[in-house]
Each structure stands twice: as structure tokens, then as C-alpha cells.
Amino acid sequence: MAEDRAPRKASTIVLVRPSDNDGFEIFMTRRPVEMRFLGGFFVFPGGSVKRGDSSDAMLDRCRGLSPEDAQRQLGDELSTAHSMGHWVAAIRELYEEAGILLYVTRDGRQEVDAVVAGRIGSKREDLLSGSLSFPELLQAEDLYCDVGRPVYFYHRVTPEQYSMRFDTRFYLAVLPAGQVPLASSEEVTESAWITPGEGLRRAERGRMAIIPPTLTTLRTLAELGSWDALCDEFGLPR
After folding, report:
1. How far is it, in rounded angstroms, from Cα 148 to Cα 152?
2. Contact 41, 31 (CB under 8 A)
3. Residue ranges with strand state E in 57-175
4. Helix 227-234 and helix 212-224, axial crossing angle in degrees, nearest 10
């Protein structure tokens, strides 16, 4: 029987922040060399879309984007719920890998006090262990997944000749005020803030292992040049 080579649905998020001289930096992570898929490569946080990402319980904890708007942006081949699931997956993966949570409170605030922030950080391990689901984590703190913050960037499907294939949606999001990404985690050996241009130069010199979709992202962002141009192009908040 022929092997099923249908690509897995996935989401990736490019975290950005302003830098000196109206420039900007992007957040990249290096996967452990022992990982079966892309071990040792520098990537953006992301992973497979899970069934729970589009569950009723999860969608009830989302704010900032309607399922219908999500579907219009991604295309009619996905249902409204599964379209929203791509946004949720990007936010969940960013939290799991880097400890950054894109959330909003019931009254619309994007910041919480230090005590709540500390609990959010400690509950990341509960999410990874499976003892707490993502919607349960949000509900416990009366927070909502801020799906209005990531901006849809582009769509990439792994070519058929590869044994492991992904149907991936890429997003951009500005680093939330008051949050700092983890330097390393269970799926990250090191992390770095870097300009897209410097990322390209390091890849060309063999100093960073980067796959083609990541290179495409770096080239696209490098062409914009400035923080203002990036925000204007994708409607990001300054």
C-alpha cells in the first residue's frame, strides 16, 4: 500500500520587535541536534495544528478575530473552526517553545500583574505535560487567546519529494510589552534576536543551518528594511 504523504497542517509565528535606527529584529530558535525533524536547524516557533486548537472550548477562549474572518484570510478549503485553529496553534506553539503568551483579559487589556504573569510562566510545564489543556489554562486565569494579534503572512506546502511534509501558515506578531522569550526550552537549545539581513548572511557563510521556507521569510522581511515599513506592510501595531 502506498505511503500516505499528505502534509500535516502546521503554523509558524515570526516574533518581531523594533531595534535601533528604525530597524527591526526577529526571534529565531535552534532545535536540538538529536531531534528527528530539523535537528540543529534555526527556525521560527511553530508546529502541527492539533485537534484541540479548533475545539469549541478553545474557540470560546479566543478574542480579536472571528472564525469567518480567519477563513476568509486562509481560503475556503478550510472550515471556519479549522481556520481559527491555525491562529491558535501559532500562539500555543510560541508559548510552549518560547514562553511568550499572546493573551488579552476579559476587559481587553494585554498586560496582567506580576503575580498572574508568574503563574502563566509556571503553567507552561503543565501544558507540555498534558496535565492542563490550553483552554483550561486560559480559563483558570480568566484570559483569552489574542488571535487578533498575529497577522497572517504567507502559506507554504512542503514539496512532494520529502518524506515529512507540512502545510504551513506563517504569521507575524510583535513581542508583547513586558514579556521576554526563554533563552532555551524543551525544544530549543538556544534562541536569538537577529535582523533578517544578518540571518541571511550567517546562512550564506554556513554559520546558521536554515531551510528554504525560513530563508524565503528572511528575504521577504529583509527587503522591507525598517520597522515603519514592516508595520505599514502588514498592519502591525507600532
Report:
1. 10
2. yes
3. 62-63, 103-105, 143-146, 151-157, 166-174
4. 110
HSE-up of residue 29 (Cα within 13 Å, Cβ side): 27
C-alpha R_g of the chain: 17
pTM to 2 decimal places: 0.94
Q: What percent of the chain has pLDDT over 70?
A: 97
Spatial distance between the Cα atoms of 35 and 51, rounded to a whole number of angstroms: 23
Apex CA 49: angle with CA 117 and CA 159, to 5°?
A: 135
Per-residue cell: 42:
534555526
What domains sit in the chain, N to C, each tagged with a CATH number? 8-234 (3.90.79.10)
Find out whether 191 and 98 touch, Cβ atoms under 8 Å. yes
**What whole-number distance in Å separates Cα of residue 14 and Cα of residue 20?**
19
